[in-house]
Specification:
Blueprint: H1 2-27, H2 38-43, H3 52-68, H4 75-91, H5 99-102, H6 106-121, H7 123-152, H8 157-179, H9 187-194, H10 196-202, H11 204-213, H12 220-248, H13 250-257
Helix pairs in contact: 1-3, 1-13, 3-6, 4-6, 7-8, 10-12, 11-12, 12-13
Length: about 260
């Protein structure tokens, strides 16, 4: 029953997003996007810059019924085509668009979405290979990652964009090869996964005050401010999620705050 399933998914996505966006528009320092109205900011995920993901995933959810109908035999070709399109956008080969629209372009992100779908379809076979050859997989991927990192030293323009694009997927491969089929994740990791949407929506309310309080100085001070902001976003967002679940209960907190 796709209509009801889509309704549940979109409700799960949009209700917490709208609540946090309203809080951001009321209490968070104004984002510098003066050419958008309040409704425009809500529609394009721009009440806070990091909310761009909501605009993208909204369209990915709407695409699910279409993606599900792609025959498995042609799915790899569709993935390859989508990767070529993403490469074209990321390297500027197709067009150069503003950062605001580049990160909100659903066509650009479709490759990542389809790769995840393909991996899920074949997860059992992929995990069997990884479990048998995990060290070899990590060694090859790690060597590729280091080679790309070395290549980025002194690179710029088109060459740098290519290397960065390849390194992103290599990094994802390393993470998957290191974790797939391994020991069960600790309970705290499962809990953080459950509240990750709430942390994502709330973390900037904690990160930005820390960055304003700690001057961004060169050298070690920059590392300190970055680590402090990262920890503030994680701990603050997780604490908010825990408090919401304690006060409202799991079901209501998840429905309203992610």
């Amino acid at each position: 029953d796709w209509p009801s399933a889509m309704g549940r998914r979109l409700t799960r996505l949009l209700v917490p997003y709208l609540l946090f966006s309203i809080l951001a528009l009321l209490f968070h320092p104004r984002e510098d996007i003066d050419d958008l109205t309040i409704l425009g900011k809500l529609f394009f995920g721009a009440a806070l810059g990091e909310y761009y993901y909501i605009f993208v995933i909204f369209w990915m959810i709407l695409a699910v019924p279409l993606v599900e109908r792609i025959p498995r035999a042609v799915f790899p070709a569709i993935v390859g085509l989508s990767l070529a399109v993403q490469w074209g956008f990321d390297t500027g080969s197709f067009a150069t668009i503003s950062p605001f629209w580049a990160i909100r372009n659903p066509v650009r992100w479709m490759a990542t979405f389809l790769i995840g779908w393909w991996v899920f379809q074949h997860r059992a076979a992929i995990r069997r290979v990884i479990e048998v050859r995990r060290a070899a997989c990590l060694g090859v991927l790690g060597a590729i990652w280091v080679g790309l990192a070395v290549g980025m030293v002194g690179a710029d323009g088109f060459s740098l964009a290519n290397l960065q694009w390849l390194q992103i997927y290599t990094s994802l491969g390393i993470i998957y090869a290191a974790s797939a089929g391994g020991a069960p994740a600790p309970r705290i990791v499962h809990w953080l996964s459950e509240v990750s949407y709430s942390i994502y929506l709330s973390h900037l309310f904690f990160v930005d005050p820390i960055l304003r309080a700690i001057p961004r100085l060169p050298g070690g001070a920059a590392v300190f401010s970055t680590v402090a902001a990262w920890l503030g976003g994680l701990v603050g967002g997780a604490s908010f999620a825990a408090a919401a679940r304690f006060i409202l209960g799991e079901r209501r907190a998840r429905a309203y705050f992610g």
